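Q: Joint fold for the lines below.
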Amino acid sequence: MNVSLEHYLMLTAFVFAIGLCGALSRKNAIIVLMGIEIMFNAGILNFVAFWHYKYFVSLTAQVFAIFAISIAAAESAVGLALVIAVYRHYRSVDLDEMRSLKG
Amino acid sequence: MDTVYQFLQHAEEVLRGIPLVGGLLARLYHALLGGAPEWVLLAISIAVPILFVVSVFPGIFAYTTLVERKALGRIQNRIGPNRVGRWGLLQPIADGVKLLTKEDIVPRSADKFVHFLAPVAAVIPSVLLFSVVPIGAGLVPVDLNIGLLFAFAISTASVLALFMGGWASRNKFSLLGAMRAVAQVISYEVPMVLAAVAVVMAVGSLSTLAIARAQSGGILNVSHWFVFRPWGFVGFVLFTIGAMAESARTPFDIPEAESEIIAGYHTEYSGFKFALFQLGEYLASIAMAGITVTMFLGGYNGPGSGPGFFGGLISVFWFFSKLGCMIVLTIWIRGTWPRVRVDQLMSFAWKILLPMSIVNIVAVAMWHYITIRPIAWIGTTLWLVLWFVTLNKLAATEKIEKREYRYAS
Amino acid sequence: MEIAFWILSAITVMGAIMAISLRNVMHCLLSLILFFFGIAGHYFLLHAEFLGAVQILIYIGAVAVLIALATMLTRHITGEEGPREVLGGKWWAGMGTAAIIAGLLWAIIRKDALARLLPTEAANISYTALVGDIGRALVADWVVPLEAMAVLLTAALIGAVVIALEEVIRKR
Amino acid sequence: MGFIGKGLFEGMVVTARNFVGSYFDKERLVTVQYPEERVQVPENSRTFPFLVFDADKDPIGTMRCVACKICEVECPPQCIYIVMDRDEKGKPQQRPKVFDIDISVCMQCQICVEVCPFDAIKMDNNYEKSQYGRFNELVEHLPELLKSNEYYTKIKPTEATAVDAKLKADAEKKAKKAAPAAAKPAAPAPKPAAPAVPKPAPAAAPMARVAIPDDAPFTPEQRQWLSGYLAAVGGSGGTGVAPAAAAPVAGTPVAQAAEAAAAATTASAAEAPAGNWPWHDPGLGMQQRLDLAKDTSIADKLMAAMAQTDCHACGFDCRGYADAIATGAETDLSLCLPGEAETANMLKKLMQEAGKL
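A: Joint structure:
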């Protein structure tokens, strides 16, 4: 059985669902960020899989993947800075405890 | 790998070309592998580089430790190890036996699995680094077209081992060492990669083999080394500093500063695990020296090197000579310079190295576009010197005042 | 090819599941690193070597290390959680949502809905010199997004510093 | 001309000079390659004590130590253990039978050397004392401790020469002193016997317990131990309690013999009075000894006040010194070195009490 695009799509769908589950269900802000990173990676792997199986004449998918990785890096940097700032304020990274809009 | 395969395919003719013993070698080869099927040759050509990497470089590591101890001894007017074997030549073996037979201590509160995993994780990236280091003309385990990027990616991964070891030990000194290691590696990664970008720009390829090939030719195969270019020299200095910081060599060994945090992340490691950490660290250091040689010191190029069997042998000789010189340089520096402070480390990386490496990239562009060589020489040199002086001035704004001691006289 | 795919997929899925379900944040992080390695392996398998190296360089070398630093700055150093939060009510909600999404995606893939939108035959080109091609593409066709990305990264860098140093700045 | 890193390069030049220089200039290498080369230790260096003897052919016979136990008493960490040698009759031989130094305890303070009146114990400078064990291996016994005077002269020439000169001078002085004494018709010699013979009966009670008949079936060691033990038992309880204290061991051969001796031995005590005194023993304090000698002659009291090690530091044995003081032949009361100031004070007090001072 050859590995086809469908295999990759199913894999990424599954991984995406795992990341989503983590991001939705964990209280710890850092683990929520990890879940988001997992979803990002699943998406990027999708790009690359499409590029490999269907579109590798053009490099658009790869370039797009590079941009996505860069954005993910920036997002994680800002996200973690936010987590640290929130922690300074609440002395906790538990997302359920952050109910107040007042800073 | 490819070169080994080609050699195996034409081995008999090549061997017969050797004077004196050529005929004998060719007959020997014929007896052993004459008419062997294709896949056998392929398997051998895959196995040879792997065996070479996992046997030769750990050997170099073992004797680097000996040379280091002897050289440091001589630098301090001592003798150094001379008891085990003639000139202490069996000392590495004795050390190995000692470390192997020592008790393996795991702290009770340690995270057992991660504690076990860390030394392994320290060795793997270091060994993988060698897969893109060309040790001779066309002799590279894998000629990846992203070779240099691969090397940087792998060397970044090695910081994880330090982090895991420091965190899993549940020891404040280990953790401090791990934090320092992480901060240091992230900071020095940037100027190091930017210094490499200069070379990549000049060559137009990330392949280490292509970079080495670009430095062949000229007078005695020497004059085209990148270190003999203004930007190359600056890049060489920047990259060497970055590589030393990356592999936590003195003067950048603050992650394992014995006098401050005992031994940093390997405080809680003993016996074979400690040996693995040391192995990983030294292998990374040697591999980084190899990459430095490839990028700036002409790689395997030297008088007499070139394609063909003999040229290849001479190129291997040149590569290892240069590698030895780089190792000796790091030992010499270790024997001389004091350890930097954490704040000095950071400000040096961000205030001197990073601007200098960006300036260096501009210098490469100038070199590329000014086609009249003398003007290019003068222009890039002036540009670099100007910036160096300016950065010196800017960094030196902090006046060091005479210290007043309250209790000490 | 198939064996590599299945092994890497197992690593990826296992790493992802462990990363979101383990109690100790540090163990989660190490599982996440495993996951990143799995993804990088997939990139190499798909002949996107440059992306694989970038994945290791950025995700493992930078993002994972950043998360580690953030964890150590925000939590007790062992990273232990309090009472077990996994398998609470919220957990089931997350599982349900994820299962629905996965089911939908699965259905789409199964239906071959995508196949009709895509060209059926892949062009047969060689994979060599891809890095150069990507570089050329980046500075030729995609130069404006690239510059925008540079601005974005700079802004993110400054923003992260400002947020993290908020108190220090306020004190000054 | 200063630039960043100038000092670093100067430092590298220095280390390079060291590196190259250490291969050509042997003066630079300070390492002593120990098993092949050894440091010449300074003459005044010291490690652990040893015992000096004079003639090679008879180490035991010419050993200077007289087992006076001053060093044993003075040793701050208590690392010295001495047992005086005795002949079959239990007569002290003025030399140690056992002399042990635990070098794992010894702190190399040299106090034993300072206090030794006979220049018998000296500090060695041999630093190779490591052993493959921590217990018995680190206790040095008499044979290992004995070193010749030549050895001492070799390791510490200045000090040994001074010691030799002093010993020679002492010997001459003693010879001069002995010559007139010998010329006189042995004036002090019969004296010791004279006060001893009329040793009064009351003293016989404490003495009796100590006196073990010569025909009792004991080896010399047992006899020695027994006399010390019994003396301690008798002394600690005082004269009145002594028999009761001895009673618990009744039934053992030793105790039986002692009881037999106590019953039958006033005469034998009179026969050998000097040998029956409880010898110096940690369990027997000055006051207890004086109590034992309460009702005896002044010479006996004086002797009881002494350390009773027969060390000959005063030029006599203890009995002789006591008699000499009692008869007035010797007027210096501070000659008993082992007894220190305590003895000297007590001697003075006793003499004052006796009205002889």
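Q: Anything notable?
A: The first helix of chain B runs from residue 2 to 9. Chain B touches chain D at residues 71, 74-79, 82, 332-333, 335-337, 352, 388, 392, 395-396 (CB under 8 Å).
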